[in-house]
Amino acid sequence: MAKAGSSREKGVYRKTTLKNGLRVITEKIHSVRSISIGVWIDIGSRNERLNENGLSHFIEHMIFKGTRRRTARQIAASLESIGGALNGFTSREQTCYTARILDEHLNQAIDILADITCNSTITAANVNRERQVICEEIKESLDNPSDHIHDLFSLTFWGKHPLGQPIMGSQENIMSVTRAQLKSFQKRHYRGGSVVIAASGSISHDKLVRLVRNKFTFPLGSAEPSEQAWRSKDRVIAVVQSDNSQTQFCLGFPGYAFDTKEKMPILALNSYLGGGMSSVLFQKIREERGLAYAVYSYHEFYRDSGIFGVYLGTDKAHLGKAFDLILQELTRVKKRRLASSVLDKVKAQMKGHLTLSMESTTNRMSRLARQELMTGKHQSFGQILKEMDTVNSSDILEMANSVFDKSKMAIAVLGPADKNVFANVG
Question: Quick check: is 60 catalytic?
Answer without folding.
Answer: yes
